[in-house]
Design brief:
Elements: H1 6-30, H2 37-50, H3 61-67, H4 89-102, H5 106-150, H6 152-157, H7 164-181, E1 184-186, H8 187-203, H9 210-223, E2 228-232, E3 235-239, H10 242-267, H11 288-296, H12 300-308, H13 314-324, E4 331-333, E5 336-338, H14 345-353, H15 356-374, H16 379-409, H17 421-428, H18 441-461, H19 494-500, E6 509-513, H20 522-525, E7 530-534, E8 550-555, H21 556-559, H22 573-592, H23 596-606, H24 608-630, E9 637-639, E10 643-648, H25 650-657
Parallel strand pairs: 1-2, 6-7, 6-8
Antiparallel strand pairs: 2-3, 4-5, 8-10, 9-10
Helix pairs in contact: 1-5, 2-3, 2-4, 5-7, 5-17, 7-8, 7-9, 7-16, 8-10, 9-16, 15-16, 15-18, 16-17, 22-24, 24-25
């Protein structure tokens, strides 16, 4: 089916953009700062206002600078005074916390940063529609755009101040314009391809994967049977002969790489060092994190040589060293924790976090590609679809390489790390637009009903898009049993928790929250609370001597102790016996703490290290046994599906204290 009127087509495009924006807006307004957002946003403001790139240097400079573009608009944003800004977690989180405290309207500052990412997503939705329309026609473009605009995964990460959407957008853009350059060689395409490549590299270190994809596309272009057209200010024509084609593409590659190199330096204001002195002069800055990375890196000599000759800005070199230092991290999947992760993590995540209607459409698209390429006997149609297959070839190559890297590296801490695959998936689904060209009512019905079901899934989960899980995972209510961290719980639901707690105001509140050290939960809860667990060991407050009946709010990541700094198998007889011994010593310390003289006597007899060890280990074991017990209970309520709310009475607490 061809869209009969141009105005109707653009009306549908506009409607989808508005829908995507509104979904993102309400999602954005419901979120408190997520785990990485304070550091990411603080880094962007330092980059833009002070040319100081020492905060979150491994996070990619482009997304941070984009989120901080409102720095040039009123009202003015205050930054902490110049000082030591290290790349260690504590230093970065502390500086982000100072940034929050200095700006009383921090939530507005954060929303402005999120709005920049959301606007980028809206613009990309139109671009995706354009690319899909060029390959599959307007019907295919609308299909791809609809899937993108209604995807819970996309909407969720289009409203976080992070690098994931940026690297997805610029990787896709780079691949499109590079492929277009290899078909129609011209100045505009060289500029567009260079901007896309530089954007992907500057967004996130994983964006470097566009470089091997580029050279694979270059090899395919050299062997391509299609004509290579050229258009430059001096004229236009066709490049004839393999030798001339190779010379033209080599010249374009060299020109583009020079442009990318200059754009990288431009993104760092042509400063080599990450930190500048007060007068603006460059000052070599040593950081313990950086030096530690270099000391154990297999590429230490290469990095030292690159720093000596200033081949790239130091922020880029640090990011590369950070990636080279990569080692597998603890991962959680379906109730199990692994120190090395699973190769099945991302495939399982796609199956559980993608709406079932969308999975059905992807299956239909795969079958359609097979039918259109190899089915039937009409040679003309097959040639047409081979041309379309050639058009999506670089995106398929990118998707395969990216997924292979994700599966083999096992960096299993969140589905956001494979977000760049989703635009590719939606583009390939543009083939479903061919269904609308046919007179089969069954195909029409399947496509339109699937689209309606996708819209229904979107509406049901709004505005908690990050918590979406389909029926295969038991729905969002059971998502916490399947995946944690940024796949569900990134600390973004404190605002929702504050609203939920309004009906429990008369009861004590205990909180174990997976979030940034820079964020004070009481700012969003509207009530006091006692901490029973902390992800950052240096963010704990005074010890809670006694757990009392009340409301216990536990983040999904914290209830599974997925990244806890203390490893202990609490189900062994030895652990239970050790916990009982700790309980007796802790009771003795607690009783002595009621009287200053008794406490001084105990310190003199047993020493301060004894008190510190007992109180620290008892608090850890108590928390581990508490979580083990809570995992067997049905939550009373939830906040955005990511923070579980329980009510514990005296009997419950006895079971926790006596495992």
């Amino acid at each position: 089916m061809r869209i009969p009127f141009r105005k109707l087509y653009w009306t549908m495009v506009l409607g989808l953009v508005v829908t995507h924006f509104l979904c993102g807006w309400f999602c954005m307004k419901s979120k408190s700062p997520a785990f990485d957002e304070p550091v990411f946003l603080c880094g962007g403001y330092y980059y833009n206002l002070r040319s100081d790139f020492s905060i979150n240097a491994e996070g990619g400079v482009l997304g941070q600078r984009l989120a901080a573009l409102p720095a040039y608009l009123p009202p003015a944003v205050k930054l902490p005074p110049p000082g030591i800004t290290g790349m260690l977690d504590f230093n970065q989180q502390s500086r982000a916390g100072e940034f929050m405290e200095l700006n009383s309207e921090y939530d507005s500052v954060l929303d402005r940063g999120r709005l920049m990412i959301l606007l980028l997503s809206c613009a990309f939705a139109v671009f995706l529609c354009h690319v899909s329309s060029r390959i599959f026609g307007r019907a295919g473009g609308l299909v791809s755009m609809t899937l993108y605009c209604l995807s819970p995964m996309v909407i969720s990460h289009a409203t976080f101040v992070s690098a994931d959407l940026c690297v997805s957008v610029f990787s896709f853009t780079a691949i499109y314009f590079v492929w277009r350059l290899f078909r129609r060689f011209g100045l505009l395409n060289i500029i567009s391809a260079s901007l896309g490549l530089a954007g992907a590299i500057l967004s996130k270190m994983s964006g470097l994967i566009v470089l091997p994809v580029y050279f694979l596309m270059l090899g395919a272009a050299l062997l391509s049977p299609f004509k290579l057209y050229w258009r430059l200010p001096g004229g236009r024509g066709i490049v004839r002969g393999r030798g001339r084609r190779a010379a033209v593409l080599a010249g374009g590659t060299l020109t583009g790489m020079v442009a990318v190199y200059l754009l990288i330096w431009l993104a760092y204001d042509f400063h080599f060092t990450m930190k500048t002195a007060r007068g603006g002069e460059e000052k070599r800055w040593e950081d313990v994190t950086y030096e530690r990375l270099l000391a154990k890196s297999k590429f230490r000599d290469m990095f030292q040589l690159a720093r000596e000759y200033r081949v790239l800005p130091d922020g880029v070199l640090y990011g590369l060293a950070f990636v080279a230092d990569y080692s597998p991290r603890k991962s959680f999947l379906n109730g199990r924790i692994s120190p090395q992760g699973w190769w099945t993590f991302f495939p399982a995540g796609i199956m559980m976090k993608t709406p079932l209607p969308l999975l059905l459409l992807c299956l239909g698209a795969l079958l359609s590609w097979g039918w259109f390429l190899w089915g039937g006997k009409v040679s003309g149609r097959r040639r047409r679809w081979l041309c379309r297959g050639y058009g999506v070839f670089p995106f398929v190559v990118f998707g395969v390489l990216y997924m292979t890297l994700a599966v083999t590296q096992r960096f299993n801490i969140g589905m956001r790390h494979i977000l760049p695959l989703y635009p590719v998936m939606f583009l390939l689904c543009g083939v479903l637009g061919e269904w609308l060209r046919r007179k089969s009512r069954s195909l029409w019905a399947v496509l339109l009903l699937s689209m309606a079901a996708l819209a229904w899934c979107n509406w049901r989960i709004a505005p908690y898009y990050n918590s979406y899980f389909n029926a295969l995972a038991g729905g969002p209510e059971h998502g916490w049993k399947a995946m944690v961290d940024s796949s569900l719980d990134w600390g973004q639901d404190l605002k929702t928790l504050g609203r939920r707690l309004e009906k429990y105001r008369d009861e004590p509140v205990y909180l174990a929250w997976f979030g940034s050290f820079a964020v004070r939960p009481e700012r969003y809860l509207g009530c006091g609370y006692e901490p029973v667990g902390a992800f950052f060991p240096y963010s704990r407050r005074d010890i809670v001597w006694e757990l009392k009946p009340g409301i216990y709010c536990i983040s999904a990541t914290m209830i599974w102790n997925a990244y806890f700094r203390f490893d202990a198998d609490v189900d062994t007889p030895e652990s239970r016996e050790y916990y009982r011994a700790l309980s007796q010593d802790f009771a003795m310390i607690r009783k002595a703490a009621e009287n200053r003289q008794s406490l001084d006597t105990l310190i003199a007899e047993r020493g301060r290290p004894f008190l510190s060890r007992v109180t620290g280990e008892y608090e850890i074991f108590r928390y581990l046994y508490l979580c083990r017990y809570l995992r067997t209970k049905q939550p009373l309520d939830h906040a955005g599906y990511s923070i579980l709310i329980f009510r514990l009475d005296e009997d419950d607490l006895k079971r926790v204290s006596q495992p």
